[in-house]
């Protein structure tokens, strides 16, 4: 089959690789009909996250059709159209039982193979899905395949960020980063009851989208977000900050923006070795800092009804659609925000 594979820093290639095969009886093979490039793929692309083997099939956002099932698979049959979270989960361990499916004891991240171990990704013609019964979902009625792909990661992650921020009516909230995840966090914050949402970025088109999604846009290249938020809050700072950028700058800024006793809900993947603020600084703010991988499989049932109701314009963030064969160009455009790129969908 053909797939987009990792070959080195900023080097993604469309190449022939071995077809995936059923490896354990709980696996299915999905023929990918639609997949996407995520901001998380960029950490690998730019070399901020290392360890992935050359020739690993990239990607963890995909949807498609079941073409083969292992002997133990009960919930899916050949021909089913399915959507998937970005990690696998068993559905019955302690972590699955508390809704932390991202930390399932058997969880694997799609698109991460290291020293021969791990799981190939969905930016490919076919993908092997372990623990299929508890990982996959049939494409729900009334939602498109593209919406299904968005549900498997970025909508779930944005809404998870908002959920973890414990939003209360009347509060003032900040979303940091207006990439796909941050934009979904704005919608999530609205869904959880926020009325005053500031959104920070430095890309005019992304800020414009944030405005359309109901936030007050703050251009960090032109104004000081700390001054803007503190002025709006009588010097206190925000009740909650949803951090969806993921670098030392953004974590420090989240700290500077949050009020004493407030919450930083960080979903941005920060690859720095240490926090930029000290334990004492955290103590001095009575800070709550929550972070981690989104349990997308647990979030998906909560957001699917919103997709079915067409409550928010989720799909409007898709700016580019191209063939999987042109995926290397898709990475380049998305990574460097060329052509006002916000989200790239790829069709094998
Ligand atoms: P993205 O790269 O498209 O978005 C990041 C945004 O931050 C961009 O719009 C960029 O302009 C903005 N930004 C970067 N530096 C800035 C600065 N100094 N000032 C102002 N704005 C700045 O990526 P995305 O797909 O939206 O993902 C965002 C983050 O979420 C990534 O770190 C990604 O790895 C992470 N993520 C986490 C999970 C999870 O489970 N926790 C899931 C998906 C993605
Ligand atoms: Zn992703």
Care to describe what's here?
This protein folds into 2 domains: 2-153 and 295-347, Alpha-Beta Complex (Quinone Oxidoreductase, Chain A, domain 1), CATH 3.90.180.10; 157-291, Rossmann fold. It is built from 11 helices and 17 strands. Helices cover 29% and strands 26% of the residues. Strands 3, 4, 5, 8, 9, 16 and 17 form a 7-stranded mixed sheet that branches. The chain has a 6-stranded parallel sheet with strand order 12-11-10-13-14-15, sandwiched between helices. The protein has helices at residues 39-45, 94-97, 132-135, 145-164, 180-191, 204-212, 225-232, 248-257, 279-284, 296-308, 327-335, and strands at residues 2-8, 11-16, 28-37, 61-69, 81-83, 112-114, 117-119, 126-129, 137-138, 172-176, 196-201, 216-219, 238-243, 258-266, 288-291, 320-323, 344-347. The structure holds nicotinamide-adenine-dinucleotide and zinc ion.
């Amino acid at each position: 089959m053909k797939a987009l594979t990792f070959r080195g820093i900023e080097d993604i290639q469309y190449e022939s690789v071995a077809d995936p095969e059923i490896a354990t009886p709980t696996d299915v093979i999905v023929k990918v009909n639609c997949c996407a490039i995520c901001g998380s793929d960029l950490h690998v692309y730019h070399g901020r996250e290392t360890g992935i083997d050359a020739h690993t099939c990239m990607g963890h956002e995909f949807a498609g059709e079941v073409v083969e099932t292992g002997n133990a698979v009960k919930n899916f049959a050949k021909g089913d159209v399915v959507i998937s979270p970005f990690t696998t989960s068993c559905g019955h361990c302690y972590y699955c039982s508390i809704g932390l499916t991202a930390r399932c004891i058997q969880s694997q991240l799609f698109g991460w193979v290291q020293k021969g171990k791990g799981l190939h990704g969905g930016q490919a013609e076919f993908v092997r899905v372990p623990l299929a019964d508890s990982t996959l979902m049939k494409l729900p009625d009334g939602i498109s395949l593209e919406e299904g792909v968005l549900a498997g990661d970025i909508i779930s992650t944005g809404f998870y960020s908002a959920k973890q921020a414990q939003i209360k009516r009347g509060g003032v909230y900040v979303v940091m980063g207006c990439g796909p995840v941050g934009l979904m966090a704005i919608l999530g914050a609205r869904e959880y009851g926020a009325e005053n949402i500031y959104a920070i970025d430095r890309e005019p088109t992304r800020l414009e989208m944030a405005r359309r999604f109901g936030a007050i846009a703050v251009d960090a290249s032109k104004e000081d977000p700390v001054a803007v938020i503190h002025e709006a809050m009588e010097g206190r700072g925000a009740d909650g900050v949803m951090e969806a950028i993921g670098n030392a700058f953004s974590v420090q800024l989240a700290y500077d923006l949050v009020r004493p006793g407030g919450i930083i809900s960080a979903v941005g993947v920060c690859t720095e070795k240490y926090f930029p603020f000290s334990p004492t600084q955290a103590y001095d703010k009575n800070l709550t800092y929550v972070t981690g991988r989104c349990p997308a499989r647990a979030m998906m049932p909560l957001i699917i009804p919103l997709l079915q109701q067409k409550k928010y314009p989720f799909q409007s963030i898709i700016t580019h659609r191209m063939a999987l064969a042109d995926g290397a160009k898709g990475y380049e455009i998305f990574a460097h925000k060329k052509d006002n790129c916000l989200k790239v969908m790829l069709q094998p």
